[in-house]
Design a protein that fits this description.
heterodimer; A: mainly alpha; B: mainly alpha; MetI-like fold; 71% helix; disordered N terminus
């Protein structure tokens, strides 16, 4: 597996600044030969097309139909009726959530939680990767890597269970607080602690896994640059700053753009597992709110409108992050 | 996305660009020592939650309630394990998880393998469209409500299929597999074609036997995802006897948090501590299969991430 992946990576190496290469489309402007060669390729490759039928059908039903299903944001929906709704109601539901104070409350919560997560969880893997990169004992490095990747493979339910146990009144954190003479805190019932808890558990789960791409990028930094820097009298710290960091900058920018794009999708499932009515004031985010409005209280159209709004903002954020980074740093995803 | 050439894919990450043999300054040696200690501390933090859950699972409920359990079991016993062994609800959901994982992984592998094989054929007309159909779903998805409406109206609620089907094609896995197939030697397929083998035969007799490594990786990717999933079951299943074990676990912790949040923490603490025991055992039993396969699959996961990060 490793040899082929090597080849694959080097083949695709210069992709960052360029648009994704499209497969050539022959015969676009010439209908007749195109039709004939379609018939030819159908006859030659019918088995391939036959193999594709089932997966394409799957994608259409389970991915594209829900995409179109978003029209219920603008249509009246009757449970048991058509999944595309009954009749047009225009922007009624959009109007509803714009005038819904709870919506703006959860919107603010989402932005704060997303921003905190981004600010904390984006740089930490870089730091960890740089520190790991300085380790010369292979076995030690590999052990640390194995341990730090492990939380990535846990079910969120397990993560939530661990968080609850550690922070319960009998849990380790309160044992320490009480050992230092403090008073136990029911962390999960305190709204002011929710953001810390969320971001902390997010760090625990993602920091190790996040180093993988950086460690890969670090191995590609040209060794001769370090030599040149040393001859110029740069110490290790300056070598890191002037050689290593610029070497992994494309990776950093790519991941930053991707993180910004998923900014508003703050871990819906994790919030759902960790929050409770006592912490709604800081913990309730757009997705949990639309879950309660839509699936618990059955206002499906209203919730769909909120979901669509969230998706649109996400899209705008990716596009603008990409645009800004292309203008300012000259690197972008597409 | 990420564009560097990789030379260290399968786990064997070697030290970065620092030349070995250059004499270290005293400052750098101090840094190395500091770094080593720091990394050990970080990994202890990473491991601690596992250790404490394991310790609690073997501890006396009274000791947990008194807040005495941290690294090591206090009042060692296996009573909770024994009690869980009798719990039919738990084992029903454990069996459900196994069934969902097996069925889901099988369906996902069939769909992903066939589709990846098709879109790896560079000569195929309409290949761009097929790839586009898949990749587009990475950037836009229907969202919670439309998906829920779809599953309900297909009549899949309270069936296994609601849990198994929606996750069946991961575009990420699809692209990993596609690039693997693209890198298989063309000559073999051409030779097989000359010998009169159709595409079905090429896939079944030539490509699949050559792709055991990537197939194993994908099986593990999907199996771990199905094993860990709780949300689809939470949305679409109402009947206890259909719940996967993750949802069983979720109801345990949700129960604990409502008891604690209803009354003052002191009132709730009794119920919470009793279930802390059971929670820990449940977590351990969910974790065991993952932790057992982890050492074997880790290198594949890592190289999978590397491969997948190259845009299809």
């Amino acid at each position: 597996m490793s040899t082929t992946s090597d080849r694959q990576l080097s083949a695709a190496a210069p992709a960052l600044d360029r648009p994704t290469p499209r497969p050539p489309r022959a015969d676009v402007g010439r209908p007749r030969p195109a039709r004939r060669s379609w018939r030819l390729s159908l006859r030659r490759d019918w088995q391939l097309y036959a193999l594709a039928v089932l997966p394409v059908l799957f994608l259409v039903v389970f991915r594209y139909v829900p995409m179109l299903g978003n029209v219920i944001a603008f249509r009246q929906f009757r449970p048991g009726g058509s999944i595309f709704g009954e009749q047009w109601v225009g922007l009624r539901y959009v109007d509803m959530f714009i005038h819904d104070p709870t919506f703006w409350k959860v919107f603010t919560n989402t932005v704060i939680l997303g921003a905190l997560t981004l600010v904390v969880c984006f740089p930490l893997p870089i730091v960890l990767a740089l520190l790991l990169n300085e380790v010369r004992k292979k076995a030690f490095k590999r052990t640390i890597q194995s341990i730090s990747y492990l939380p990535h493979f846990l079910s969120l339910v397990i993560v939530a269970g661990m968080v609850m146990q550690l922070l319960s009144l009998q849990g380790t954190v309160n044992q320490i607080i009480e050992g230092l003479g403090g008073e136990g805190i029911p962390f999960l019932q305190r709204a002011e602690w929710f953001r810390t808890i969320y971001v902390g558990s997010e760090v625990w789960q993602t920091v190790g896994w996040g180093t993988i791409l950086y460690l890969a990028a670090l191995t590609t930094v040209d060794t001769s640059l370090y030599e040149a820097a040393r001859i110029d009298g740069a110490n290790r710290w300056r070598q890191t700053w002037h050689v290593t960091i610029p070497g992994i900058r494309p990776t950093m920018i790519t991941l930053l753009i991707l993180n910004i794009g998923t900014f508003l999708n703050v871990g819906f499932e994790k919030v759902l597992l960790l929050y409770n009515p006592l912490t709604y004031s800081t913990a309730d985010v757009i997705s949990t709110y639309l879950y309660r409005v839509g699936l618990v209280s059955n206002n499906l159209s209203y919730a769909a409108a909120i979901g669509l709004f969230q998706a649109c903002i996400g899209l705008v954020m990716v596009l603008s992050a990409n645009f800004i980074s292309r203008r300012v740093v000259g690197a972008s995803l597409w | 996305m990420v564009t560097q050439t990789g030379t260290m894919l399968s786990g064997g990450v070697t030290g970065g660009g620092k030349p070995v043999g250059a004499r270290d300054t005293r400052g750098y040696r101090a840094f190395t020592a500091f770094n080593t200690v720091g990394l050990i501390v970080v990994s202890l933090f990473m491991l601690y939650p596992f250790v404490t859950v394991l310790a609690q699972s073997f501890s006396d409920p009274g000791a947990i309630k008194a807040g005495m359990v941290s690294f090591w079991p206090v009042g060692f016993n296996v009573d909770t394990y024994r009690a869980m062994a009798q719990d039919t609800m738990f084992w029903t959901s454990y069996r459900n998880t196994i069934v969902y994982t097996l069925v889901g992984t099988t369906i996902a592998m069939v769909l992903t393998t066939t589709f990846a094989f098709v879109i790896s054929k560079r000569h195929l007309r309409g290949r761009g469209v097929l790839i586009g159909i898949a990749v587009f779903t990475m950037f836009f998805n229907g969202g919670l409500v439309p998906n829920y409406v779809l599953i309900s109206s297909l009549g899949l609620k309270n069936t296994m299929w609601a849990v198994v089907l929606p996750g069946a094609v991961s575009v990420f896995n699809l692209l990993v597999m596609k690039s693997f197939f693209e890198n298989l030697p063309q000559e073999l397929e051409e030779a097989a074609q000359i010998d009169g083998l159709g595409w079905f035969g090429i896939l079944g007799r030539i490509v699949l036997p050559l792709s055991k490594a990537v197939l194993a990786t994908m099986v593990l990717f999907y199996a771990v995802a199905y094993w860990n999933d709780w949300f689809a079951a939470f949305l679409y299943l109402d009947k206890n006897e259909l719940f996967p074990v993750t949802l069983f676990m979720r109801n345990l912790i949700a129960g604990a948090s409502t008891t604690a949040s209803e009354g003052a923490a002191a009132v709730g603490s009794t119920t919470q501590a009793v279930s802390a025991n059971i929670q820990s055992v449940t977590m351990i039993l969910i974790l065991v299969p993952i932790v057992c396969v982890y050492p074997f699959v880790q290198r594949y996961f890592v190289s999978g991430v590397m491969l997948g990060s190259v845009k299809g």
